[in-house]
Amino acid sequence: MATFLRRLVNAAPALRSNAFGGQSKIHSSKYRFPIGAIAAVSGGISYMYYVSSSDLVHLDQKSEAGGPKVALKSDKWIEFKLQDTARVTHDTQLFRFSFDPTEKLGLHVASCLLTRAPSGVDAEGKVKYVVRPYTPISDPDSKGYFDLLIKVYPQGKMSQHFASLKPGDVVEVKGPIEKIRYSPNMKKHIGMIAGGTGITPMLQVIDAIVKNPDDNTQVSLIYGNVSPDDILLKQKLDLLASSHPNLKVFYTVDNPPKSWKGGKGYVTKDMAIKGLPAPGDDTLILVCGPPGMMKHISGEKAKDYSQGEIAGILQELGYTKEMVYKF
């Protein structure tokens, strides 16, 4: 396990230092909207979301002629072997899956993958499956492996299945599912509001921007959690912000200690005014979190899981549908 953790820190230092063997907790939110309601790291709710939404695109690896071979298939469930696991907090675990080291996973920024596990049989004796989306925290360009950071819920069918896995076991994966296609300098300024594990798709975009010297996009992130100990990925976010002047990060927590110097409470209109780019044609605001947070910040998605209308704080501040994307 120690070897795995060292490799992980060197290959994808996405977790704060006390995540490995520390006593910090991932949250069960008092955010008026439970951050714990996020069903997966990517914030997805159900498989129906990913097969029904009109604003999502199933990528076809076969169209990328001449590029590196990819491990994922958009039309076929592929088995990936669990290489190792690590406990991050009392209810969050890290899972590394391996595949052919000459291949790339096949993710684009920003996209996620689908996982499935058997969940009994139906009346006709056919196997039923539970399907959930997850956003890998490893670099999309990594070859031979990908990492999932998963919060294990007491009643979570898929997360409990992951928790039961041992090295050598396999999980069926399909995808990727593209949410929004990022391209360098597509907007002058990107604002982000994330709650809890909703940080992972934001990190995909941030990583893509900061590792590209030709990408001049300004990024402003507001990240809400219950307490400072619940801030996932903080070490990496702080490092990126300190070394890239085009990235600004603001943390707010529900239960701050006396020594806390960040924001206090849930995201407010004043925080958004100070921390996000102003509405405009060259501005994009990304939002990811549990349903209650989405309602408070940007309005929920429509019943058909399309983007829906803008509401909440962002609507009050003058942002339009064209300026906001809800993960």
List the helices and strands and how they pair.
Blueprint: H1 2-11, H2 47-52, E1 57-58, E2 78-89, E3 92-98, E4 111-121, E5 127-134, E6 145-151, H3 157-164, E7 170-178, E8 189-195, H4 199-210, E9 218-225, H5 234-243, E10 247-253, E11 263-264, H6 269-275, E12 283-288, H7 291-297, H8 312-316, E13 324-326
Parallel strand pairs: 8-9, 8-12, 9-10, 10-11, 12-13
Antiparallel strand pairs: 1-7, 2-3, 2-7, 3-6, 4-5, 4-7
Account of the 3D structure:
This protein has 327 residues and is α/β, with parallel strands linked by helices. The chain has 2 domains: 2-178, Translation factors (Elongation Factor Tu (Ef-tu), domain 3, Beta Barrel); 189-326, Rossmann fold. It contains 8 helices and 13 strands. The strands form 2 sheets. Strands 1, 2, 3, 4, 5, 6 and 7 form a 7-stranded antiparallel sheet that branches. Strands 11-10-9-8-12-13 form a 6-stranded parallel sheet, with helices on both faces. The model is unreliable at 5-64 (pLDDT under 50).
The first-to-last residue Cα distance is: 33 Å
State the major sheet. Answer: 7 strands, antiparallel
The succession of helices and strands, N to C, reads HHEEEEEEHEEHEHEEHEHHE
Any idea of the CATH class of the largest domain? Answer: Mainly Beta
Which structural category fits the helices and strands? alpha/beta
How much helical structure, as a percent, in the residues? 10-25%
Gross morphology is globular
Q: Tally the beta strands.
A: 13
Radius of gyration: 19 Å
How many H/I helical runs?
Answer: 8
Mean pLDDT: 83
Which fold does the CATH topology of the largest domain refer to? Elongation Factor Tu (Ef-tu), domain 3
CATH superfamily heading of the largest domain = Translation factors
* Count of distinct structural domains: 2
Q: Tell me the β content.
A: 25-35%
- Uncertain runs are 5-64
CATH architecture level-2 label of the largest domain: Beta Barrel
